[in-house]
Amino acid sequence: MIVLKSAREIEKMKKAGEILASVHRQLSSLIKPGITTWEIDQFVENYLKKSGATPEQKGYKGYQYATCASINDEICHGFPRKEPLKNGDIVTIDMVVNYQGGLADSAWSYGVGDVSDTAKTLLDVTKKALYIGIEQAQPGNRIGDIGHAIQTYVEGEGFSVVREFIGHGIGAVIHEKPDVPHYGLPGKGPRIKEGMVFTIEPMVNVGTHRIKMDNNGWTSSTEDGQLSAQYEHTLAITKDGPVILTNQDEA
Ligand code: MF3
Ligand code: CO
């Protein structure tokens, strides 16, 4: 069942989204060669506490950290760790913020120091794929229109879209209906309606879309060891179109 949200609920999720956006803005200057994803996770947890918010991922299905930190060929659900990031790495930091019961979810990929041309292109294409998906999140369209637009663009750039992890409705809990794949056919899937709140979060790989699972039970990486990136926003659908609740641009 897809739960439609009231204006009041969306307002609370927007507050969570503003805090989350502010975390990512700070991470973009904090992330440099030498910092560890462990330190980043601590920074996020402290900042959320100071803001009166909590890290919703901590304790979710036994997950132990405020953030997911996925480095290079890791696609998602990497554990924060005490090994310094190196010049040329890329890292995706993903988190869900809870502010007074309102949730928001946003992942962002960062280049560490100077990254390769391939990494730069991957980051650009993945971010653009997110915004191309958001453009399709219009009332009256179908969920499949989003994935189709993303897949067409990404594959046209010579990269691939991960299938196993998808966007999702979000509300009282992190994962609700609808499922929002980043691939598929236009005109398929549920009709997009005012009051829906869901994420779009394409994971894009340089090589194969296939994944392998780490034996920690959480972290997935590209099967061929090539790079993967991800950008994610939480959106509320209004009658005038999507509103990005985790928007990082200054108003
Ligand atoms: N933020 C992730 C998502 O986009 C959720 C991760 S669940 C966790 O769906 F437990 F790994 F944190
Ligand atoms: Co998500």
Characterise the protein shown here:
The protein is built from four helices and 15 strands. The chain is globular, with a radius of gyration of 17 Å. The relative contact order is 0.19. It has one domain (7-244): Creatine Amidinohydrolase, CATH 3.90.230. The chain is α+β, with helices and mostly antiparallel strands and 251 residues long. It has helices spanning 7-30, 37-50, 117-135, 143-156, and strands spanning 54-55, 68-71, 74-76, 90-99, 102-111, 160-161, 167-169, 176-180, 197-200, 203-205, 211-213, 220-222, 228-230, 233-238, 241-244. Strands 1, 2, 4 and 5 form a four-stranded antiparallel sheet that branches. The chain has a three-stranded antiparallel sheet with strand order 3-12-11, with no helix packed on it. Strands 6-10-13 form a three-stranded antiparallel sheet, with helices on one face. The structure holds 2-amino-4-trifluoromethylsulfanyl-butyric acid (MF3) and cobalt (II) ion (CO). It holds the Pfam family Peptidase_M24. One of its GO terms (molecular function) is metal ion binding. Its cofactor is Co(2+); Zn(2+); Mn(2+); Fe(2+). It comes from Bacillus benzoevorans.
Highlighted features:
251 residues, alpha+beta, Creatine Amidinohydrolase, four-stranded antiparallel β-sheet, three-stranded antiparallel β-sheet, binds 2-amino-4-trifluoromethylsulfanyl-butyric acid, binds cobalt (II) ion, aminopeptidase, protease
